[in-house]
Amino acid sequence: MSVLVVGASAAGLTTVEALRRKGYREPITVLGAEWHPPYDRPPLSKQFLCGDWDEARTRLRPDTMLSALDAEFVLGDSAVSLDADRKLVQTAAGRSLTADAVVIATGLTPRSLPGPDLQGVHVLRTLDDAAALRKDLVESERLVVVGDGVLGAEVAATARRLGLAVTLAGPQATPLEAQLGPTVGGLLSELHRAQGVDLRLGAAVTGLRAVDGRVSGVQLADGDVLPADVVVVALGAAPATEWLEGSGLRLDNGVVCDANCRAADGIYAAGDVARWQHDDSLVRLENRTNATEQAICVAGNILGDHQPYRPIPYFWTDQFAVKIQVHGRPSADAEVTVAEGNVADGRFIAHYHRDGRLVAVLGWNLPKQTRVHREHLVRA
Amino acid sequence: MKIIVDQDKCVASGQCVTAAADVFDQRDEDGIVVLLTDNPPEDLAADVHQAAAVCPALAIVVED
């Protein structure tokens, strides 16, 4: 038996590590679109962007550990098509790769704003994106972040640390409101304002202004223009499935999989790109922990475990001196109550209830206790 | 078995404690990983490897 993993980021690498740990000794090939060996993404908007970590520190594993996996890493080449019946992947460089099992872990492609390419406009997904953004930030004075989700809020916080004047613009009434609701979103608004971020929330961005091919501002629907030397577009991302058009797999906001993360016979998906059957609905999660946990499940299922993937989702975000940790599946319409600590002290745990049932716990600067509260979710 | 933790990389998720509470703990103030023993008994090996695998920062290395 042989395994081909398409994607060399957290989900791809974890699949390989889990296969080896479970005793699989046969050939593994890993195809990565970037030249970089596997690196971690959460630090890109934080430790790497602010300059605390260099590129080497973002590596997921050192060379010695990668070599010990005895897998062939094919880097700097991307998949352009899959024939699901033959389990045949063609690459941009003209390679034809086949295996008995194929794992799709190609992640996400960030959304951009329509219009011509302008200097000073960035998205943040890859290490190269982050390096280019950092270079621009340290030479600039005014940043506008377009997008008020996790990534946008983290970039805004990091840029403030770097001393830039920062405006955070987005369609929601408060940052992260769609994920965490208005109560926590309101606290995030207060946090960012207290740290000097100019919030332009509830604002529709209609376009960019430019001078000589370089961005000069962000145009809002109400007519205002936010002046900018640098703009970060953080409007979310789409599953990287274009290469799978015509593969025979079902694509619908990701690679659609059964409960065991299997997209077709011998074909699996893991990480941001995978949308799998979880209870009554199809679920796709974009977070770092899911990449690992889903990849471990997939590795087991390749080896015959027949295990459904049933995680308690977990994500975290660090903004200024605040660490927010979320277990479960919160939603904007859930009822939020403080279960430990208090908001005024800046250290608390909130419970999210929907239809009378506990669906998520959120910790605000209380990491150890947040893990303890996760147990309530396990029981619920 | 020898365990090495990188407290600078640690993101305080506590996943390691959930996997192997006899080996890992978190600091009270910031949740950063604390190693209770760097050479645990062999019967905890599976739990320790699981902890290293699920760490979302890959901040735990286990040397057999």
TrEMBL record, chain A:
Cofactor (UniProt): FAD
Signal sequence segment: none
Reductase C-terminal domain sequence ranges: 314-377
Keywords noted in UniProt: FAD, Flavoprotein, Oxidoreductase
Cellular component terms per the entry's GO annotation: cytoplasm
GO terms for MF: oxidoreductase activity, acting on NAD(P)H
Domain of life from the UniProt record: Bacteria
Coiled-coil zones: none
One Pfam family here: Reductase_C
Residues of the FAD/NAD(P)-binding domain: 1-295
Protein name per its UniProtKB record: NAD/ferredoxin-dependent reductase-like protein
Automatic annotation (TrEMBL), chain B:
Protein's UniProt keywords contain Transport: yes
Cofactor: [3Fe-4S] cluster
Record SUPFAM superfamilies: 4Fe-4S ferredoxins
GO molecular function, one term: electron transfer activity
Entry keyword annotation includes Transmembrane: no
Keywords: 3Fe-4S, Electron transport, Iron, Iron-sulfur, Metal-binding, Transport
Domain 4Fe-4S ferredoxin-type: 1-29
Gene3D superfamilies named among the record's database cross-references: 3.30.70.20
Physiological role: Ferredoxins are iron-sulfur proteins that transfer electrons in a wide variety of metabolic reactions.
Official protein name in the record: Ferredoxin
Species of the source: Kribbella rubisoli
